[in-house]
From TrEMBL:
One Pfam family linked to the record: Semialdhyde_dhC_1
Protein name: N-acetyl-gamma-glutamyl-phosphate reductase
Family according to the record: Belongs to the NAGSA dehydrogenase family. Type 1 subfamily.
InterPro entries listed in its UniProt record: AGPR (IPR050085), AGPR_AS (IPR023013), AGPR_dimerisation_dom (IPR058924), AGPR_type-1 (IPR000706), NAD(P)-bd_dom_sf (IPR036291), Semialdehyde_DH_NAD-bd (IPR000534)
PROSITE patterns for this protein: ARGC (PS01224)
A molecular function GO annotation: NADP+ binding
Protein task: Catalyzes the NADPH-dependent reduction of N-acetyl-5-glutamyl phosphate to yield N-acetyl-L-glutamate 5-semialdehyde.
Predominant location: cytoplasm
GO cellular component: cytoplasm
Amino acid sequence: MIKVGVVGGTGYTGVELLRLLAQHPEVELKAITSRGEAGLPVADMFPSLRRRVDLRFVDPQSADLTACDVVFFATPNGIAMQQAVELVEAGVKVIDLAADFRISDIAEWEKWYGMKHACPELVAEAVYGLPEVNREAVRKARVVANPGCYPTAVQLGFLPLVEAGVLELDGLVADAKSGVSGGGRKAETHILFSESADNFQAYGVAGHRHLPEIRQGLERFANAPVGLTFVPHLTPMIRGIHATLYGRLKKDVDLQALFEERFAGEPFVDVMPKGSHPSTRSVRSANMCRIAVHRPQGGDVVVVLSVIDNLVKGAAGQAVQNMNILFDLPEITGLGQIPVMP
């Protein structure tokens, strides 16, 4: 059994991670930390976990995380980098669901996240945990930087096109919409029901923290500079991301075949039949990205529709997928949940 610790188990990503780990046949949960809720039974805060998780929250200072095989950080940005070195030196694998290790350029990271990085030496070796691209590197990693939710949907949608070199790279557009759970489990005005219900709003147009992460990934796929406009939106739903992606073709290509061939055998990417329009509800609570590719009016513009559950393939599910790779388990282990309908 894999001995697992979870740092920060009180947010939406944290409880989603616990839901998946509690069902995983090869996992033994050893510690779930929270400063504010130390001593409280986890199932008292999250009744959905009653009879599945019997642990109490423990203070991070008293938790023996070095006794774990792997520790997940479901914490705000800036926490994992404070503790990762000690864990790695003790032989513990680290999977960070925040952004501390995602961006390789330290100065760029510090600009976007507004703090000094505590362990830049680990950033250089951390593996970006997008399995469809970095599977073999993840297998040997000590630190896995779990991708963000928007970056997962956008990068997977653009991946076949950028890898194949069939797009003009200076004018890519990612128009993405997210449910309010992407804002976290906290009290902020913009995600209150009375503010977000019956409303639809763009934000971060001048610049969003996920922009450099997405651009870094696309430039690695292309091995060339990429010009990207990324506009996120908040939608009145709880879960889900819908990314509509635009690019201009520079050569003729069978788009459907390109996508089907690139993702053949990928357990968590579903290329939909030609002409499809995937919905966020079709991936709700599942570790799945559904993609459809279009060429409107047969012109030179390609439109890709990419949908994920922001809390699963966009966060906790992808983290468990990375754990499975780290410990040489089939990637689908513990992740076979069928999307919830309606």
